[in-house]
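Reminder to self: tokens first, then the designed residues, so the page reads top to bottom the way the pipeline ran.
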């Protein structure tokens, strides 16, 4: 891990102000799901993983929805590589992506369905896939002896 810091106090301050929850893409997907009658938890803690959260969690159905920012999570279409302090940023973004993989694997091993979307994906399309996954998990639960 690099011991370098962001290239300037201004960059550091600007990056620390970036929203980590309730981003516009998250809110858009939540609105669509809520309007369709779905109820969920927002920023729910990942079981047994301190300091990690699920953007939209359907706890009974065990469906976890993550909406990842293109820069912070390494979108293959839109991620950029900062030129100033490049190695520090590369290390930081690589750690973010490794943490994403670890969180997904942890939840999947605990029986959760994990859905990840990029911030640029249409909210309606994401909400449709989420609703389908929740309904599928509910049907499995109903077959197993009720709610």
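Designed residues (147 positions):
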């Amino acid at each position: 891990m690099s011991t370098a810091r962001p290239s300037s106090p201004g960059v550091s301050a600007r990056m620390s102000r970036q929203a980590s929850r309730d981003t516009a893409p998250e809110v858009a997907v939540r609105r669509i799901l809520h309007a369709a009658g779905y109820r969920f938890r927002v920023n729910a803690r990942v079981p047994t993983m301190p300091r990690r959260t699920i953007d939209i969690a359907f706890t009974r159905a065990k469906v976890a929805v993550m909406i990842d920012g293109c820069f912070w999570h390494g979108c293959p279409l839109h991620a950029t590589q900062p030129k100033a302090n490049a190695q520090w940023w590369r290390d930081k973004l690589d750690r973010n992506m490794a943490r994403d993989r670890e969180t997904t694997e942890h939840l999947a091993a605990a029986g959760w369905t994990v859905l990840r979307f990029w911030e640029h994906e249409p909210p309606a399309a994401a909400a449709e896939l989420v609703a389908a996954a929740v309904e599928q998990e509910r049907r499995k639960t109903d077959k197993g002896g009720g709610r």
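The radius of gyration is 17 Å.
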